[in-house]
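User: Structure tokens for this complex, please. No commentary.
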Amino acid sequence: MQTSIAQSEPERKLQRMSGGKLKRFLNNRTLLLMCLPAIAFFVIFAYLPMPGLYLAFINYNYSDGIFKSPFVAFDNFRFLVINGDLWRLSFNTVAYNLVFIVLGNVLQIFVAILLNEIRRKWFKKVTQTLMFLPHFISAVLIGLIAYNILSYDYGILNTMLESFGMEPVKTYSDPKIWPFIIVLTFLWQSTGYGSIIYFAAIMGLDNEIIEASEIDGANAFQRIIYIVLPWLKPTFIILMLFSLGGILKGNFGLFFNLVGANNTALYPTTDIIETYVFRSLMTNFNFSIGSAVSLYQSVFGFVVVLTANWLVRKASPENSLF
Amino acid sequence: MENREDSRSIRTDVSGTIVKLFGYLFISFFALCCLLPFLLVLGTSLTAEGAIKKYGFNFWPREFSTFAYKIVFENPDLIIGSYFVTMGITLAGTALGLFLVAMTGYALQRPDFGYRNGISFFIYFTTLFSGGLVPFYLLMTQYLSLKDNYLAVLLPGLLSPFLIIMMKSFVRSIPHAITESAKIDGAGDFTIFLKLILPMTTPALATIGLFIALGYWNEWYNSMLFLSPDMKYRPLQLFLYNVVTSADFIRNSSAASNVQLRDMPLESMKMATAVVATGPVILFYPFVQRYFIKGITVGAVKG
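Assistant:
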């Protein structure tokens, strides 16, 4: 290693005496020390909770604590499978994420391409700023905005429906319409910000190719379909695969603030893994069931990430995670 | 970015006009959809409660009234206290978090750091596998005793693998030769980081700092988990959440402001609180937007 220049005499002596490991440690000790706070952080907040997943295999009760509560092996999982919760949660979480990923990316590409066609600088700037806006607000405010639109009594949606002579919608008690509400809100919040990646990718497209296509007589549609879209394909595939890795992770803030903490009528279509675990902790105090669902989520999520990464490595090795 | 237009303007075909026209229409429509909900909240907050009951929420107040704001500021120490709590957490968290992210990111990007792959994976692994909410909650409340402690909001937000990876990508653009020559001059690793690297990465630090700050400002999840509504001064978003969701809060502020419960402007008050809690950030953000853009385009290149 090249670092040995800055070392003091006793250190060098030590190195000569011991093997490579100690030498490596001493060479790197300042850098190691600089990483120490981060290591401590992740040990405490990410690694320490992991053994707590043992809760999934016991029937936790508060008086006995973690170590004395009865061990029940896979009973919690059996319970979740038999009552259908696990299936419903997995389906909701995965289905929402799939729709988010596909529609989200398609709309982001769409917006990026249209933005690129627009020449007026001020227009681009103003609209981009407005489109980013929803990304910068808290989930609480998103819930409140949805309430402004959807509230049965005062919401602007029903005001508009009534002014057209239509029946008002009982939004907060009709589970059927919620997939649309949630997907629309997601797209509303994420499209502007997400389109940046695609917009940046289009910027990387060589001008000469565009010019050549125009000399060859390609019109705007042909330019978009045969040059821009194929150019964006690798970015699209990589982003899709990356998001696939997180397909079992739900967006808690979005669902929780849109649906509300205890609107049971909407659970069939809006309950995802995160909201279920949250309730098992804060409302039902069933720590073991909550942990069982979390463990299931982590293990399957891990398998999905490995698969997605394997696919990325096939598609483009330099982009794979590990 | 815009230099493409000159070369092309010679031949304008029909399809180009159609695409452009559609672009202007669609982008305008979408941008308007992004703006209108905010105007809805603002408009409702300035509407008299009676008009809300009669006509519903609207963009333009049918009967203008600032009563809701009066009630919100009737008990000003609550909202001002919340502001101070959030600002305190945001400032402290951003300063400390930024320093830690930068220091870790720099160390992990040094090609001569023997443990960098191991530590990078150690950090990255936490995004792949997690203990979930229940063990985290038990750890925070029973073992670290952070219930009703602002540290429960401050500490978990300090670092994230995503930001460390982003910092690594930023640092990668600084030639390693700079570090090497400083070492030859006898500078230690920490001094190099502090005196040499930090000043060279200010755009990166601005981006990462803004990501951290935005996270703290919008933080409501850990606040909701670990801070009870009995706390007098809560972070802004939790305060807003309590105003939006809890009837108790309305009752309390009715008692505090000597306004009869039935006269309380329930709906407009929620919106007024939202405006007060969010307004300043929204006004601030167009000025810093470009840093976020930089962040996402750098972050897209994996670390």
